[in-house]
Amino acid sequence: MPQQAIFITGGASGIGRAVAVLFAQRGWRVGLADVNAAGLAETLAMLPAGSATTHKLDVRDRDQWVAALADFAAASGGRMDVLFANAGIGTSGPFAATPPAELERCVAVNLLGVVHGAHAGFELLAATPGSVMLITSSAAGIYGTSGAAIYSATKFAVRGLAEALDGEWASAGVKVRTLMPSFIDTPLLDQPAGGSNQQIRDNVRRAGLEITPVGEVAEAAWAAAHGTVLHTRVGKTARKLWFAARWMPGALRRQAQRSRLGRR
């Protein structure tokens, strides 16, 4: 059987790096994509020699997607078993006070970056039996997060995109899945929370919520790529939020009105 292959955006750090390491350890060929060339080199150095290629990619640019996937296909022998659309940015703070350019950038990276990847990657996915498009959504895509409105909006959007494409692409043999992590130990937690001078990480700990190790997300990505569940919640907070959104939406609404806390 030809070597299975995964293409990962946001591969220079965090979840993307952890997933790359895990899949490479399990014998997969890996394509690492990111705008951060130095971070890509660091991730590449963690992988077995000859098991990966790097691709400079701004996910907002569809032409760059087409070029990166063509290069990856040449290296993988024309297959892509998993397209992991993971690249994303966090934006927090009062919505009405956030500069429009920042709102637009979040939408461009977190939503349009996934849209471009799905559109450009479909042909290669459809040519690979049993392929999966895996998208990083968020617990913020389960119930809207006060203080991170535009971020939540993009994560709801990719959740909806995954549900639609999982139905639309079934006839082509392509499955679509999401990861919905809560607070993961990545650099996004080190950003200011809600326009304050405090880090999201500090607010999470103050609220008594857990920070899930990034390795747990990598294992969840492996399970999602090989399983039947459409949305994989990662971390206790995400699982509790999923339950509450279904059975206690009123309580969540009241909580949202009382607090603002960044989420990833």
Automatic annotation (TrEMBL):
UniProt keyword terms in alphabetical order: Oxidoreductase
Claim: Oxidoreductase is one of the keywords in the record: yes
SUPFAM superfamilies reported for this sequence: NAD(P)-binding Rossmann-fold domains
Single GO MF annotation: oxidoreductase activity
Family the UniProt entry places it in: Belongs to the short-chain dehydrogenases/reductases (SDR) family.
NCBIfam families: PRK08267.1 (NF006123)
Protein name per UniProt: NAD(P)-dependent dehydrogenase (Short-subunit alcohol dehydrogenase family)
Species of origin: Sphingomonas trueperi
